[in-house]
Amino acid sequence: MEPFNLNARVIVTNRHTTDQMSDFSPIDVGVAWGPLGEEGKLDLSKFYQKERFLYWKGQKIDDVPYWDVRKHIGHLHVIPADDYVLQELYALQPNDLISFRGHLVRVDNNEGRGIWVSSRSRTDTGAQACEIVYITDLFRY
């Protein structure tokens, strides 16, 4: 769909092994960037993942209003380009700083229907708000 590069702080990760998408997207990564990506800005214990969704407790995070939080966090369904990227993803820990390069993608079934289409908006919410990212390069700091 389009290039997607990001410098961010890891909030949480979640491995997947049994759902329909786990064969090509075995891990999700919750990230924060911009002002929310600064060290110590977020109480990471307020975030959690369930199934393929990212949640946080409360209407504000450390006195940051909901919509400001929403603009600076993301839940990435990751498709690793190779085994090296996959192993780096598995090694991620909350609070790690990362930088990656990749592309937002659309996953089609055998009939060419989009069964998983990446969001391209920073203000959407809900089931179609996640980014589906094919990551080619990943760096941890």
Please explain how this structure is put together.
With 141 residues, this protein is mostly beta strands. It has a single domain, classed as Beta Barrel (OB fold (Dihydrolipoamide Acetyltransferase, E2P)), CATH 2.40.50. It has 2 helices and 9 strands. The chain has helices at 66-71, 83-91; strands at residues 2-15, 27-32, 47-50, 53-56, 73-80, 97-104, 106-108, 114-117, 131-140. The protein has a 5-stranded mixed barrel. Strands 3-4 form a two-stranded antiparallel sheet. It has a two-stranded antiparallel ribbon with strand order 7-8. Strand 3 and strand 4 form a beta hairpin. The radius of gyration is 14 Å and the shape is globular. It starts with a strand and ends with a strand. The mean pLDDT is 81.
Tags for this entry?
9 strands, OB fold (Dihydrolipoamide Acetyltransferase, E2P), single chain, 43% strand, globular, two-stranded antiparallel sheet, 141 residues, mainly beta
Rg (CA only): 14 Å
Biggest sheet, strands in spatial order? 1-2-5-9-6
Identify the CATH class. Mainly Beta
Helix content: 10-25%
Quick structural summary:
The chain has 141 residues and is mainly beta. Helix content is 11%, strand content 43%. The protein has helices spanning 66-71, 83-91, and strands spanning 2-15, 27-32, 47-50, 53-56, 73-80, 97-104, 106-108, 114-117, 131-140.
Task: Describe the protein's topology.
Blueprint: E1 2-15, E2 27-32, E3 47-50, E4 53-56, H1 66-71, E5 73-80, H2 83-91, E6 97-104, E7 106-108, E8 114-117, E9 131-140
Parallel strand pairs: 5-9
Antiparallel strand pairs: 1-2, 1-6, 2-5, 3-4, 6-9, 7-8
